[in-house]
Design a protein that fits this description.
- By secondary structure, this protein is an alpha+beta fold.
- It folds into 4 domains: 2-44, no CATH class; 53-136, Immunoglobulins (Immunoglobulin-like, Sandwich), CATH 2.60.40; 149-234, Immunoglobulin-like, CATH 2.60.40; 250-369, C8orf32 fold (Roll), CATH 3.10.620.
- The protein is 21% helix and 31% strand.
- The chain has helices at residues 2-16, 34-44, 250-268, 276-290, 307-313, 318-332, and strands at residues 53-56, 61-64, 73-80, 85-92, 98-101, 109-120, 123-126, 133-136, 149-152, 158-161, 170-177, 182-190, 196-199, 207-218, 221-224, 231-234, 295-296, 315-316, 337-339, 348-353, 356-361, 366-369.
- The strands form 6 sheets. Strands 3, 4, 6, 7 and 8 form a 5-stranded antiparallel sheet that branches.
- Strand 14 (207-218) and strand 15 (221-224) form a beta hairpin.
- Helix 3 (250-268) packs across helix 5, helix 3 (250-268) crosses helix 6 and helix 5 (307-313) packs across helix 6.
- The chain is elongated, with a radius of gyration of 34 Å.
- 32% of the residues are buried.
- Residues 1-40 have low confidence and may be disordered.
């Protein structure tokens, strides 16, 4: 009877494929016979590698993936564009789940796959290859700087900044020489993160044109990126006054100015503030505290963009916090520039503090030297 039952089940496997094993049906030891062979292929075949991660240098790529079940090792493949197929890079025999591919070309895009394998009973079982992972090596020649922001801070100073370029050794700033009708080197700065430059000694109310390019040094050789598009900076005119009220009635201007003047007086007379930065930061923090609990957004009276909105009416936007801070700075005796005025972008003030170009933001209650950045260290776009 046992022989007949085993033969029937074996026949079922041959006709219908693997069949579920129900406890108590198979005679003892049947798993070592024909049915065991039917399960072996699935049980021993490794999973498809997933969760590919990669990073790159100039001539190398690091590949990492999650371990696959049943994997004895892995084979790494790279796509051969001329042959139109994937070719073996290496077979990893110790179960490693990371590998650095060396000897690649700089600035080239590659596609990789990884496939797991298992060995049992003298046979090799190959799993399904991973999805393709595409990554580019870093070119020796740095990318062109896409945009440069130029902001005046006074009649004689301003600041340039631009998005940093990965692995840049530094940057070179150029200024247009109208007499020579060409751009001349102004300054070379070193460091990938040194992507801001302070401009001093400028003339009031004059426009200047600048370009910036990145450079890299590899194996003792310098590679220059393409210069950015030109950007124009116009310094503040002598006696420059910012319009903080945009046509608001005189009585409302006077009501807001009375408060702004009082705040400025308290800050300037407080001996604990030793530097310009201390005083400007105190003004920015005051504005930030003032808007706590106020309504953010537009209003039908257009108070939102003025000091009256922040200091009296209880309504604000970043435009209003900027004009409010600016009005306090007026009474503190600082020249300032309204960044992104009348634009649907974040707005703040630039000014000179302690002989350095800096920023002040009433919305966030911040002030500092250089230019305003977000929490990730990225310059706010202009």
């Amino acid at each position: 009877m046992k022989k007949q039952l085993t033969a029937l089940l074996a026949a079922a496997v041959m006709i219908f494929g693997t069949v579920p094993v129900t406890e108590g049906i198979l005679p003892e030891g049947a798993q070592t016979g024909i049915l065991a062979g039917a399960y072996a292929e699935d049980d021993l075949t490794p999973e498809q590698p997933v969760a590919f991660h990669s990073s790159a240098g100039y001539t190398w790529v690091d590949l990492t993936w999650w371990p696959a079940n049943n994997a004895k090792g892995y084979r790494v493949y790279v796509y051969d564009e001329s042959a139109k197929k994937y070719k073996k890079v290496i077979t990893l025999t110790k179960g490693q789940t990371e590998y650095r591919v060396n000897g690649l070309k700089n600035g080239k895009t590659y596609k990789f796959k990884v496939r797991a394998y298992n060995k049992a009973n003298g046979k090799t079982y190959w799993g399904k290859p991973s999805e393709a992972n595409t990554i580019s090596t870093i070119p020796y020649v740095p990318e062109q700087i896409k945009v440069v922001y130029a902001r005046p801070a006074s009649t004689t100073a301003g600041v340039l900044n631009w998005p940093k370029v990965e692995k840049a050794k530094g940057y070179r700033i150029y200024i247009y020489d109208s007499a020579a009708k060409k751009y001349k080197k102004l300054k070379t700065v070193t460091g990938e993160n040194n992507n801001t430059y302070e401009l001093k000694g400028l003339k009031a109310g004059k426009s200047y044109k600048y370009k910036v390019r990145a450079y890299r040094k590899v194996n003792g050789k310098t590679y220059w990126g393409k210069p950015s598009a030109a950007v124009t900076l116009t310094t503040l005119t002598k006696g420059h006054k910012n319009d903080c009220y945009y046509g608001l009635s005189y009585d409302k201007q006077a009501a807001a100015d009375k408060i702004a003047k009082s705040v400025a007086k308290k800050i300037m007379s407080n001996s604990k503030y030793k530097t310009d930065l201390d005083r400007v930061r105190a003004a920015a923090e005051y504005v930030c505290e003032q808007i706590n609990g106020e309504k953010y957004g537009f209003d039908s009276n257009n108070y939102y963009c003025t000091p009256y909105g922040v200091l009296v009416a209880g309504v604000f936007t970043c435009a209003g916090t900027t004009t409010t801070l600016g009005r306090i700075l007026d009474y503190m005796g600082y020249e300032w520039y309204h960044v992104n005025e009348n634009q649907y972008l974040h707005q703040w003030c630039t000014l000179v503090m302690d002989g350095k170009v800096g920023y002040a933001c009433g919305m966030a209650g911040l002030a500092g030297y250089g230019d305003l950045r977000d929490e990730d260290g990225i310059y706010f776009e202009g």
